[in-house]
């Protein structure tokens, strides 16, 4: 935490934790302030204390606040070179496993999980793969499970898909209807969407690959260490961990447990 | 004058100590032995070559019979097993090794050229911690896995499995002949649970999700205890638990939930769904055994 945590903010986060068991107390304060500032405007609360009272009084208010605290925007094949590296460097190794498990930790509205499913489908591995996609936000999970995105985003998605080394056309994996597009059922069938918190829960399965991108940046140092500990416990030895472009294990308490495999794309291998 | 002597002495002493230590470790460090069971001569030789190192001795054999003979007379730190052998299948060989008390049971790495079905993987998973499908990057992974096992020996952590399989005294009246249904899709946990329960005389049956569990209970009634993971594909543990409780034929079977969730209300939801108890992951073997003792019907 920073040197002088805002008492109103602390009281709000404590209240949320005790009442709803969502733990944001280890989130980086600057981004929390920004998000809560936005929530204040949207929910028409003059002060953080008003927001706290509102959230304690009505679960609906909490659910709206949660949206501000957790929603992250993502894209299909965001940071294409990450997916290209997975395809070229990691997939050949993954092929040696008779069955595979992948965990997308902090899946938000599902774009990353579907991108991985598409790579695995094109590489002929999807039939033997189970992808766990977890998030703490129930609304995001519902959206992820639906797999429906605005059609206007698909031009950008298609570009990224090609840059990521896509073998065919992204349209092989979705059906457009009116202003939206729905992703293929065979992708969904390989993904298990579930609720899981890196702040409070522990490892639930041993997996060959964990992809946890742009989640750690919202955590303060102790929570980052906790979360990376959970990721480490989940990756089998010689398995892989992928982080977001601005994230690193370098200063983590668990840095020793991994080697940097593709440093430019933040892909690590468990020792 | 004296100063010079003092400057040199500690250095010399340090060098001596280092040299002595090196000698000592060389003498106490035993040779690691790897049994390579592979019927194809070319593959066998290339595997041995791959694994060869100063402190590793590879013992190549081409048949299951030769493998069993070697396991009777020699202690191995690791075994690399191809599944297609001329005299019996790889899984038959593994079963035989598990039954015979006279065989050592080193950590086994299955190294196979063909694809493996989920059912086969499950069956092999009872005896083997890693299965490698041959391909472009498989030599690298084989080397990784063998190194891991040999390193485990080095740090004096004999694999739990080896100890359990050898130790017949673990048989326990509470578990003898009891049927435990493990509903879990994580191979690591299935392996751990099997290693702990089977040597104690229990028969472990496996379902990979809630749906398979319900089917299993219908087809093979008479299960004594259910260990239920919560997060599974197809049908999750809470739903399956509710369904088991709703059916009069299965309503009384004790269920212990395996959960990765830490919050009090997560645990409460296990109990509300009808579980008798829960245990947190990662599984603590002793705790699991005492829970199983508590809930196993007398």
Automatic annotation (TrEMBL), chain A:
InterPro entries (UniProt xref): Bact_Chemotaxis_MeTrfase, CheR_C, CheR_MeTrfase, CheR_N, SAM-dependent_MTases_sf
PROSITE patterns found in the cross-reference section: CHER
GO MF annotations in UniProt: S-adenosylmethionine-dependent methyltransferase activity
Highest taxon, organism lineage: Bacteria
SMART domains per UniProt: MeTrc (SM00138)
Domain CheR-type methyltransferase: 1-249
Protein name: Protein-glutamate O-methyltransferase CheR
Originating organism: Nannocystis pusilla
Lineage: Bacteria, Pseudomonadati, Myxococcota, Polyangia, Nannocystales
UniProtKB/TrEMBL annotation, chain B:
4-aspartylphosphate carried by residues: 82, 229
Zinc-finger keyword on record: no
Pfam family, one: Response_reg
Keyword field: Phosphoprotein
Protein name: Response regulator
GO terms under biological process: phosphorelay signal transduction system
Stored PANTHER family: HISTIDINE KINASE, HYBRID SIGNAL TRANSDUCTION HISTIDINE KINASE J
Keyword Ribosomal protein listed: no
Domain (Response regulatory) ranges: 33-149, 179-296
Organism: Nannocystis pusilla
Domain of life: Bacteria
């Amino acid at each position: 935490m920073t040197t002088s945590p805002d008492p109103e903010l602390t009281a709000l986060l404590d209240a949320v934790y005790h009442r709803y068991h969502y733990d944001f107390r280890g989130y980086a304060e600057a981004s929390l302030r920004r998000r809560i500032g936005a929530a204040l405007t949207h929910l028409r609360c003059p002060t953080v204390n008003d927001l706290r009272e509102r959230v304690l009084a009505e679960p609906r208010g909490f659910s709206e606040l949660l949206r501000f605290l957790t929603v992250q925007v993502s894209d299909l094949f965001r940071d294409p070179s990450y997916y290209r590296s997975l395809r070229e460097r990691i997939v050949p190794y993954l092929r040696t496993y008779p069955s595979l498990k992948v965990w997308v930790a902090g899946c938000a509205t599902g774009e990353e999980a579907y991108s991985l499913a598409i790579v695995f489908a094109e590489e002929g591995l999807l039939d033997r793969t189970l992808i766990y996609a977890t998030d703490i936000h129930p609304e995001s999970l519902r959206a992820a499970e639906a797999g429906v995105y605005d059609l206007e985003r698909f031009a950008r998605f298609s570009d990224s898909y090609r840059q990521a080394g896509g073998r065919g056309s992204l349209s092989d994996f979705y059906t457009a209807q009116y202003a939206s597009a729905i992703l293929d059922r065979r992708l969904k069938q390989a993904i298990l969407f579930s609720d899981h918190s890196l702040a409070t829960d522990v490892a639930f399965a041993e997996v060959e690959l964990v992809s946890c991108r742009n989640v750690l940046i919202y955590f303060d140092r102790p929570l980052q260490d906790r979360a990376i500990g959970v990721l480490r416990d989940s990756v089998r030895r010689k398995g892989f961990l992928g982080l977001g472009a601005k994230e690193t294990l370098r200063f983590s308490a668990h840095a020793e447990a991994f080697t940097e495999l593709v440093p430019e794309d933040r892909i690590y291998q468990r020792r | 004058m004296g100063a010079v002597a003092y400057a040199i002495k500690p250095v010399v002493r340090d060098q001596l100590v280092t040299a002595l230590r090196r000698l000592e470790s060389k003498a106490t460090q035993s040779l690691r032995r790897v049994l390579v069971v592979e019927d194809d001569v070319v593959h066998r030789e290339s595997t041995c070559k791959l694994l060869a190192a100063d402190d590793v001795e590879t013992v190549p054999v081409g048949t299951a019979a030769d493998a069993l003979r070697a396991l009777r007379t020699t202690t191995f730190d690791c075994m690399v097993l191809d599944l297609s052998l001329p005299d019996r299948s790889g899984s038959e060989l593994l079963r035989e090794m598990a039954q015979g008390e006279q065989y050592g049971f080193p950590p086994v790495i299955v190294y196979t050229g063909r694809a493996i079905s989920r059912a086969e993987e499950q069956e092999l998973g009872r005896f083997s911690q890693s299965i490698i499908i041959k391909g472009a990057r498989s030599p690298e992974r084989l080397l990784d896995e063998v190194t891991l096992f040999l390193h485990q020996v080095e740090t004096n952590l004999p694999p739990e499995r080896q100890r359990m399989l050898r130790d017949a005294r673990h048989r326990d009246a509470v578990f003898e002949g009891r049927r435990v249904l493990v509903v879990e899709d994580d191979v690591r946990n299935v392996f751990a649970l099997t290693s702990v329960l089977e040597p104690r005389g229990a028969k472990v049956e496996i379902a990979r999700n809630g749906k398979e569990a319900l089917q299993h209970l219908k087809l093979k009634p008479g299960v004594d205890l259910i260990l239920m993971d919560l997060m599974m594909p197809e049908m999750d543990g809470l739903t399956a638990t509710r369904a088991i409780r709703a059916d009069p034929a299965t309503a009384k079977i004790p269920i212990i939930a395996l959960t990765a969730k830490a919050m009090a209300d997560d645990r409460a939801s296990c109990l509300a769904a009808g579980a008798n108890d829960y245990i947190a992951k990662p599984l603590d073997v002793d705790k699991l055994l005492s829970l199983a003792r508590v809930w196993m019907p007398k």
